[in-house]
Design a protein that fits this description.
The chain is α+β, with helices and mostly antiparallel strands and about 475 residues long. It has 17 helices and 26 strands. It binds flavin-adenine dinucleotide (FAD). One of its GO terms (biological process) is amino acid catabolic process.
């Protein structure tokens, strides 16, 4: 098969995987990246660059072990040895959960959460549920509360408790309940692992959502010691073609034999005619570009893809004070403005301090925190989290702050495409609309996949686009030589 020349827009994981795979198939690639750095929504922040100090993931931070494509690349790139368990929200029983009684230790919160659930259920329904089902419902409801953004929580709240408990009707839950001290807890990880039908049984509005909740809290999650950005840097090293950072595509015109790109670099703009283009730009950004030659249906798809915001605020702390409080890792559902707090393991030289992901919010909650000025945002996070962890108020405890508001990051204008609240058929149709090529212009990125908001989705979409480009009929290959115009 004749080698093709492919220009890839975007050096996030989708663009880099596509470049790597296209070269393996004998094609020639070059990559245009608008940002000064590669990686896109994989963004590892090092508090002390060049020193073995703490780091924090401001973008993606964990990989479900079941995400086979992502795991495959980590193995191929020699990173498997650096994978370690990611302890997530609610996993460390010493961490906190926000309840009607204030912040309670997870191991002490069951009774309050069951009481809260019981008070929401109609009295006539209450007797239909066993104590184990109520315990399951209470801990699922708090996960929804912790993980779903405000607008989605509101949209699905009606009848949600009964719907969630309906998922485990007929399952003997007593095997998964146990006591910790005087409180009863339920092992949702074991329950979901033993009963995959719970996840498979989710239809309608809960289809993708419950899948993500199970991924988040019920399956084995992994982190990459040394930073997830090693994935993109290792990929970059394997690609022979050039990756041009700081080259922002500002316009795109699809012709019958070429795709013309308008590219801004520094103060200059040039136009380039390309044989094939693979566009991995999030549609939240793409719809702001000058686009010509795309059909109406595609323009509608680009215009309609919804994105959620995410905001992260991380602290460089003098020491991992939470360990003295008995917390060995995982996360707290802190509620309020800050929502979720994670305690990553200490990496590097412990004398250089520790990273704390003080706040992780998505959707409306992220908009709210993200809309504050940076000093106000940081002050709000320190104020709220200081009430849970007063150690933060000690002089010299917080050495530095790093934050990222993905909704106002020009290169993404959002954190992830949203398919929650849609059933399986609607999700598949939307994916196909987003991924549909236009002549010699192809599309990839998490928004074009079956796993939006995951690295796995970006990888799946890249592999799919590579197959499409590779199979593009040789008979149609009569393109002009690629040329650069203007400066
Ligand atoms: C806060 C947050 C937490 C997440 N957590 C997880 C997690 O724990 N696990 C997980 O698997 N996934 C997670 N994700 C999702 C995961 O990060 C993404 O799905 C994945 O990285 C997307 O890759 P991509 O290549 O599709 O897009 P991107 O990474 O966004 O890449 C697109 C690239 O295009 C570039 N670009 C944009 N506009 C232009 C232009 N005009 N010209 C040239 N280049 C341009 C961008 O700079 C970017 O580099 C998270 C995402 C966020 C934001």
């Amino acid at each position: 098969m004749a080698a093709k020349r492919v220009t890839i827009i975007g050096a996030g994981v989708a663009g880099l995987v596509a470049a790597y795979e296209l070269e393996r198939l004998g094609h020639q690639v070059d990559v245009l990246e608008g940002h000064p750095e590669i990686g896109g929504r994989i963004r590892t922040h090092r508090f002390l660059p060049g020193r073995p100090g703490p780091l924090v993931e401001l973008g993606a931070m964990r990989i479900p072990a079941a995400h086979e494509r992502t795991m495959g690349y980590l193995r191929t790139l020699g990173l498997a040895d650096q994978l370690q368990e990611f302890t997530t929200l609610f996993q460390d029983e010493a961490a906190y959960v926000h309840t009607s009684q204030g912040h309670q230790r997870i191991r002490e919160a069951s009774a309050t959460l069951v009481e809260e659930l019981s008070s929401r259920l109609p009295a006539a329904e209450l007797s239909c549920y066993s104590p184990e089902m109520l315990l399951f419902g209470a801990w699922m409801a708090v996960r929804v509360n912790a993980l779903a953004p405000g607008d989605f929580r509101d949209a699905v709240s009606h009848g949600l408790d009964a719907e969630l408990m309906g998922l485990v009707a007929g399952i003997d839950l007593s095997r998964y309940t146990g006591t910790s001290g005087s409180a009863e807890l339920i092992d949702l990880r074991a329950l979901f692992a033993d009963h995959p039908q719970i996840r498979a049984g989710c239809r309608g509005r809960l289809y993708r959502f419950v899948d993500d909740i199970v991924n988040e809290t019920g399956s084995t999650l992994l982190r990459l010691r040394g930073g997830l950005d090693q994935l993109v840097h290792r990929l970059r090293k394997r690609i022979r073609g050039p990756v041009h950072c700081g080259n922002e595509v500002t316009g795109l015109e699809v012709g019958s034999r070429q795709v013309r790109l308008r590219i801004r670099h520094g103060f200059g703009t040039r136009t380039r005619a390309c044989d094939f283009v693979l566009c991995t730009i999030p549609f939240s950004v793409l719809r702001g570009l000058e686009l010509h030659g795309l059909d109406d249906e595609k323009m509608a798809a680009i215009g309609s893809q919804r994105y959620w915001n995410a905001t992260k605020v991380a602290l460089h702390c003098r020491e991992p004070f939470w360990e003295c409080d008995g917390i060995r890792g995982g996360g707290s559902f802190t509620g309020g403005l800050i929502r979720q707090t994670y305690y990553p393991p200490v990496e590097g030289d412990p004398r250089l301090g520790a990273a704390l992901l003080a706040s992780y919010t998505i959707g409306r909650d992220a908009d709210q925190l993200g809309s504050l000025s940076r000093p106000t945002r940081i002050a709000a996070v320190l104020e709220e989290l200081g009430a849970v962890h007063p150690e933060l108020r000690r002089p010299g405890m917080v050495l530095a702050v790093a934050d990222q508001v993905w909704g106002s990051e020009p290169s993404t204008q959002g954190a992830a495409a949203v398919r929650w609240g849609k059933d399986a058929v609607a999700c598949d149709e939307e994916r196909d609309r987003m991924a549909r090529p236009q002549g010699r212009l192809f599309f990839a990125g998490e928004h074009c996949s079956s796993y939006p908001a995951w690295i796995e989705g970006a990888v799946e979409s890249a592999q799919q686009a590579v197959r499409q480009i590779h199979r593009y009929p040789a008979s149609a290959l009569e393109a002009d030589e690629p040329c650069e115009v203007g400066a």
